[in-house]
Design goal:
The protein is mostly helical. The chain has 2 domains: 155 residues, no CATH class; 141 residues. 60% of the residues lie in helices and 2% in strands. It is built from 11 helices and 2 strands. Strands 1-2 form a two-stranded antiparallel sheet. Helix 3 runs antiparallel to helix 4 and helix 8 packs parallel to helix 11.
């Protein structure tokens, strides 16, 4: 290449490299913005806003239903939208917020199931609500389908069904959509929450290698299992999955925090009768603490008593404390 040709080539090359650098900076900047988790919201304000365009007042169950709808819509409408099924950058290379989304989605699925199976039914033999029959399985659609159908389309249909249920619930001229705020209904949902938090706590704690005694069949001398298992097992979350578990737990506790605040409103009479309001308040406080901002731009994985922090163990502490308080709350609800 002669001097003249080189002089013509270099400016174009510099321009192309500058354009690529600018594009990369824009994509990275958008990715950082999309990775910011939504802030908590006030469940009472959300309920008031959703009922503002109707002639109906707030009723028992409307706060829980409105909160479920708001959280489901947040999954789809936050910056970047729903990222778990993205096939283009920056969503393609992001993993923290998709794991956050999955944690939220699991709680949405559990809460919608509680609506269908417990909250909306007076007894086990009563008929299921027509809208909840649609909403609950739609939320259980896979979260990584990009097309035919897209995950978002299924979740939007579920949200539409929940909106229909909410409007029928607050309509004084209709009585077919109900919410039964009973101690056994609340305890049934909390039993599932307890199981979810217990699993998250164990997975978070496994960020550090642990030797655990096998307690799978403890307490039942006649219990059996499919295949033999060791009396002691070594458990450790793979290094590349530690931040995935952490952000899944952040999403789950974020959603659960709002659902419990809604339950505090709708089950106020039940909680007062059982003298359980303080117990629920303590659970909410632990979950609020789990949402504190990270003091470092990445999830640290120091040893338990080492020089560096271990964010997973800190999160496990809050999750475990909330889970213990839920066990106490369920005990109070079961008492006469």
């Amino acid at each position: 290449m002669n001097r003249e040709s080189l002089d013509r080539f270099l400016p174009g090359r510099r321009l192309a490299m500058a354009a690529l650098g600018l594009l990369a900076a824009i994509v990275i900047g958008i990715g950082i913005y999309w990775s910011i988790a939504p802030a908590p919201f006030n469940v009472n304000e959300v309920t008031t806003r959703r009922l503002a365009n109707t002639d109906s007042a707030q009723v028992i169950g409307s706060t829980s239903a409105a909160t479920l709808i708001e959280i489901a819509e947040t999954l789809l409408e936050k910056p970047g939208g729903f990222l778990s099924n993205d096939i283009m950058p920056p969503g393609l290379y992001l993993d923290n917020i998709p794991n956050w989304e999955f944690g939220v989605l699991v709680q949405v699925r559990d809460f919608s199931r509680a609506f269908r199976e417990d909250f909306s039914r007076s007894q086990s033999q009563s008929t299921e609500d027509a809208d909840l029959i649609i909403a609950e399985p739609k939320f259980n659609f896979t979260n990584d389908s990009w097309l035919f159908p897209a995950s978002e389309s299924q979740y939007k249909e579920a949200i539409a069904a929940l909106n229909s249920y909410l409007l029928r619930m607050v309509d004084a001229d209709q009585s077919d959509a109900q919410f039964y705020a009973r101690a056994d209904n609340l305890a049934s949902w909390l039993s599932n929450v307890e199981s979810r938090l217990g699993s998250l706590s164990q997975r978070l704690s496994a960020s550090v290698l642990q030797q655990r005694a096998n307690t799978d069949m403890a307490g039942d001398p006649s219990a059996t299992q499919s295949t033999p298992a060791r009396a002691e097992v070594a458990v450790k979350t793979p290094w590349l999955e530690i931040d995935d578990v952490f952000f899944e737990a952040r999403g789950a506790t974020w959603a659960l925090l709002h659902f419990l605040r809604a339950a505090e409103v709708d089950f106020a009479q039940v909680l007062d009768d059982k003298n359980a309001g303080a117990s629920l308040d303590q659970i909410i406080r632990e979950l609020e603490a789990s949402q504190r901002s990270l003091g470092f731009p990445m999830v640290l994985n120091g040893s338990g008593f080492g020089m560096f922090a271990n964010h997973s163990l800190t999160m496990a502490n809050y999750v475990s404390r909330a889970n213990a308080a839920i066990i106490d709350l369920r005990r109070l609800l079961s008492q006469g």
